Amino acid sequence: MALVKPYADVPGTTVFDADMARRGYHLNQFCMSLMKAENRQRFKANERAYLDEWPMSTEQKEAVLARDYNRMIAAGGNIYFLAKLFSTDGQSFEYAAASMTGLSREDYRNMMLSGGRSPEGNRYKGERKGG
Predict the structure, then answer these.
(1) CA distances from 90 to 9, 55, 63, 66, 87 (A)
(2) 107 near 94, Cβ under 8 Å?
(3) pLDDT of residue 4
(4) Do residues 52 and 73 lie in contact, with contact meaning Cβ atoms separated by under 8 Å?
(5) Are 9 and 125 in contact, with CB atoms under 8 Å apart?
(6) Which of 58, 72, 92, 129 could bridge 77 with an S-S bond, Cβ 3.0-4.6 Å?
(7) φ, ψ of residue 2 in degrees (nearest 5)
(8) Among residues 130, 125, 16, 126, which one has the least CA distance to residue 81?
(9) Which sign, positive or negative, has the C-alpha torsion 83, 87, 89, 92?
């Protein structure tokens, strides 16, 4: 019997639950490996070779190589683990978040300083007027 996930009804939201943790285990462990300087150096020297040491899916590896954080999250990545990757690239959380929203860093920063994005369209589908 499948677990009922009412939070799956929130558009644009991926909840990191037990299923996502299982799916992204090796992706997240790869990210954690970047906490060690020698692993960061090996990864930077030959990203594909380093990734091939990890039993990740092709989708996960391609997402890492493309630095597509939305794809990584969809493939089980957790933003707190993915932070090790964008930090290895010398990038900030603001940079990663902006890239995930499709906004420039300046536009993302301005949006957040003005109170964040509107909650319209980001509610459970069942909460919307008219269903």
Answers:
(1) 35, 25, 18, 16, 5
(2) no
(3) 83
(4) no
(5) yes
(6) 72
(7) -75, 145
(8) 16
(9) positive
pLDDT averaged per 10 residues, the chain (length 131)? 75 86 97 98 98 98 97 96 96 91 89 76 57 49
pLDDT computed for residue 69 by the predictor: 96
CA–CA separation, 94 and 92 (whole Å): 5
Query: What is the pLDDT, as a whole number, of residue 30?
Result: 98
Spatial separation of the C-alpha atoms in residues 36 and 11, rounded to whole Å: 36
Domains present along the chain, CATH in parentheses: 16-117 (1.10.700.10)
The DSSP secondary structure of 33-72, one letter per residue, reads HTTSHHHHHHHHH-HHHHHTTS---HHHHHHHHHT-HHHH
- Listed as own residue / partner, the contacts of 94-97 with beta carbons closer than 8 Å and 24 or more positions apart are 96/69
Report the distance separating Cα 95 and Cα 86, nearest Å: 8
